[in-house]
Q: What sequence folds into this?
DNA sequence: GTAGCCTTCCTAATAGCATTAGGCAAATGC
DNA sequence: GCATTTGCCTAATGCTATTAGGAAGGCTAC
């Protein structure tokens, strides 16, 4: 019996690709098994269960996204860095909708700590260095930036912006203008 | 044989409640049938299929959310209105996580047009009247506000803010301060 | 080289889910 | 009171995840 050569890594990659094609929630152990030409049960020698597999895809996506954002931000500061971060983030989400959905899945605390999630937070903080916002407001700004990025991408992907003719890229650019403005004029405590 | 008195309305309500308890994606035809003490197949006299049922929950949630936001915003303007809108939105999402997830599900265009989604957009535009932002930037601002609200709530619900001690309500308040600032200083086209 | 072991794959089985077809009985309309 | 509609049933199909237990490939130690 010829072995199919399944490994956790290949499984995770295949799951990520399948997610981008058909949606993260439609990634199924059965479909992956078919793709590798093995029986479903065989995959359980490599993964604990379906949730385990999805978690691996999430970790892969978080790492990839962090890499791309890091590359985009390198050597930039201020609004330049903000726009580079934001564009890299949105670009990844649009090229890899399934992986992106995975990256947004809830991880148990231990897994989250071992993920690239920390790098995301760090890089966002790095952006804010150009705006000189002290703690605790810096954390508030990190959360706001994360919210806008994720929110925009998420609504856009869900088709929520299709009811208006206004160009979605243009709105994105203006949103980043407004964010830059908000960070430069960060409101003092009333 | 005593009839259970299932109706589409009762089914939809039960599905919404179940969603809030166990999560929207864990709402299942089987669980609902158990709840009503009937067989699964019986529900198909009332709904077309599971997707149809989920759509009904989405429409219910969109309408409820629009009602609550409308009530909160009534009689307010400027930043007052912004904060009232945002707080009502976030409050609904936290009290009804399952319904909220439903409200964010992708609807086919026709259903979307018949939904309360339009009211949401209108109310957001109403908020912006206090800031006198002309088109097309007004649409950009609508999209930005929607992104922040949805993004924040979504990340918060997914536990993404749990890795830092900073109070989540405080960050929210400061985010709204910053949004108000961004809208008041809406950047001119460079 | 071969004996033994670990790993990869298999078959078989269970269980939960969505959905359809076809039938009986209760509720409703006239 | 009878016919029709409607609500519920049983039965079946097919997809999914998961576990148990077995056989054979491939590597390690002698």
A:
């Amino acid at each position: 019996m010829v072995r199919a050569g399944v490994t956790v890594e290949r499984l995770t990659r295949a799951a990520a690709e399948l997610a981008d094609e058909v949606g993260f929630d439609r990634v199924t152990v059965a479909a992956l098994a078919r793709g590798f030409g093995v029986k479903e049960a065989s995959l359980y020698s490599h993964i604990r269960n379906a949730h385990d597999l999805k978690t691996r895809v999430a970790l892969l996506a978080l790492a990839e996204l962090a890499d791309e954002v890091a590359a985009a931000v390198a050597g930039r500061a201020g609004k330049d860095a903000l726009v580079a971060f934001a564009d890299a983030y949105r670009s990844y989400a649009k090229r890899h909708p399934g992986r992106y959905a995975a990256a947004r899945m809830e991880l148990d605390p231990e897994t989250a700590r071992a993920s690239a999630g920390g790098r995301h937070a760090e890089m966002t903080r790095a952006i804010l260095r150009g705006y000189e916002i002290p703690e605790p407001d810096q954390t508030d700004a990190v959360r706001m930036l994360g919210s806008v990025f994720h929110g925009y991408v998420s609504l856009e992907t869900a088709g929520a912006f299709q009811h208006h003719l206004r160009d979605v890229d243009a709105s994105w650019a203006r949103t980043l203008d407004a964010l830059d403005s908000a960070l430069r004029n960060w409101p003092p405590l009333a």
Notes: Residues 12 and 60 of chain A are 8 Å apart (CA to CA). Residues 50-73 of chain A form the longest helix (24 residues).
